[in-house]
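Students often ask why inverse folding is considered easier than folding. One informal answer: many sequences map to the same fold, so there is more than one right answer. In these notes we will look at a single instance of the problem. The structure comes first.
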């Protein structure tokens, strides 16, 4: 990869200036995918013809003097729950392979392409997004680019592997209970879970409507902010999407910085974490001058309620498939969904009432703060196939617990910028949690840490 621009910003600048062509960039990305995907298993579909056709059109437009968009020539890929015209929308399932091909691209794909980006493929994921590991029984596990014996995290595992492995500079994922933040942590890259309802989900396969968020992965904060700005905007196809107009966040990275008023979440959010994870948290907190320590009351209840809503809403979505094709589900996913179908309605009502209470509590904690900093995962990437997690000396099921720090935040829809702390030999991620619609603050804090050299992916070799 020597000599090639690797960040989205650098690629777009080079294509716009004519120092390289969109076709050369696309061909380079496709060559990397061909060489590295057998090792990483990040892609389920590679769109060679489409990518080359899009790149040639961009070069032709530049040749006639047409202005190119802010992501001119930038290769990207999407979790395979996004509709891609001409492909069945898999959502990680063997059942969905028989669906008719999508007739239109998802809205967020269309927005990236309108900005000049080049779609190169669809990415592996946990079945129906009900996964924290990146392991898929049907399509095989996505593999961590830092150590292919280890998990990517899930359910957006292919997205994190593709960006972490340098196959593409940008990828789109989804986050219901932590499916952007957990893979970003284990693969050592940046991720963004925006405010619930800020990005439209139109043209994606759902999991839990009241918890589903879409967002990008990148290797730099600037790339993450640029992608987010392009993705923003209301859309009538998603009832949960806010009608607020886009509010660009990229200019925030150029603002002068003062001292950040940041609190560190302890208690629930540090219980069971490895010493290395706690050291990373303290290093970042110290750099930000964080002196306030908080414990978020009832975080464990929020996690339990999030689990309950996940399994009940997921069961309602998949009831006909469970009835007709139960044997075609991954057994763990099937059994979780079946259990959700048996939860009494009054229990769901109680969980929803608690959700409103916990949201009010989180907003009160954020009042007067710029952000709350918390670990994304309790440990670095576990081995593929590992079943148990050592959580502070207690052995617990890994699949259910690797995302325990992420779930209470998704539950109330707060925005989070996930940042990687480059530990040796493997990184770990932190969550920068801000008030609703303040992704700009989260990105500014992440940018501050990146400039200090405290966060960021390990250099690609």
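Output (designed amino acids):
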């Amino acid at each position: 990869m020597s000599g090639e621009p690797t960040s989205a910003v650098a690629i777009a600048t080079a294509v716009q200036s004519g120092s390289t062509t969109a076709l050369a960039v696309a061909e380079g990305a496709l060559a990397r995918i061909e060489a590295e995907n057998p090792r990483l298993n990040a892609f389920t579909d590679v769109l060679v013809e489409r990518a080359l056709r899009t790149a040639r059109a961009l070069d032709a437009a530049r040749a006639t003097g047409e202005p190119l968009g802010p992501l001119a020539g930038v290769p990207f890929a999407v979790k395979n729950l996004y509709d891609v015209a001409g492909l069945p929308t898999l959502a990680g399932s063997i059942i969905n392979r028989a669906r008719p091909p999508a007739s239109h691209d998802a809205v967020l794909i269309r927005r990236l392409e309108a900005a000049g980006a080049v779609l190169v493929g669809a990415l592996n994921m946990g079945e129906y997004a009900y996964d924290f590991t990146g392991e898929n029984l049907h399509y095989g596990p996505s593999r961590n680019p830092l150590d292919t014996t280890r998990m990517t995290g899930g359910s957006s595992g292919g997205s994190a592997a593709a960006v972490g492995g340098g196959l593409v500079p940008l990828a789109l994922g989804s986050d219901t209970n932590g499916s952007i933040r957990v893979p970003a942590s284990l693969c050592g890259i940046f991720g963004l879970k925006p405010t619930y309802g800020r990005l439209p989900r139109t043209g994606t396969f759902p999991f839990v409507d009241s918890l589903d968020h879409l967002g990008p992965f990148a290797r730099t904060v600037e790339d993450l902010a640029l992608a987010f700005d392009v993705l923003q905007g209301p859309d009538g196809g998603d009832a949960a999407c806010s009608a607020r107009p886009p509010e660009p966040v990229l200019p925030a990275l150029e603002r002068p910085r003062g001292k950040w008023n940041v609190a560190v979440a302890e208690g629930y959010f540090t219980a069971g974490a490895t010493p290395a994870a706690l050291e990373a948290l303290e290093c970042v907190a110290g750099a930000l001058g964080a002196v306030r320590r908080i414990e978020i009351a009832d975080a464990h209840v929020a996690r339990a309620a999030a689990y309950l809503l996940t399994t009940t809403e997921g069961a309602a979505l998949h009831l006909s498939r469970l009835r007709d094709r139960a044997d075609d589900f991954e057994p763990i996913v099937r059994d979780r969904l079946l259990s959700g179908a048996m939860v009494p309605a009054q229990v769901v009502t109680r969980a929803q009432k608690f959700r409103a209470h916990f949201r009010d509590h989180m907003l009160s904690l954020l009042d007067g703060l710029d952000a709350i900093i918390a670990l994304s995962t309790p440990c670095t990437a576990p081995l593929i196939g590992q079943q148990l997690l050592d959580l502070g000396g207690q052995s617990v099921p890994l699949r259910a617990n690797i995302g325990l720090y992420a779930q209470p935040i998704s539950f109330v829809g707060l925005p989070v910028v996930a940042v990687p702390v480059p530990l040796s030999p493997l990184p770990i991620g932190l969550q920068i949690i801000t008030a609703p619609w303040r992704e700009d603050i989260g990105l500014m804090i992440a940018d501050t840490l990146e400039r200090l050299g405290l966060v960021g992916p390990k250099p690609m070799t």
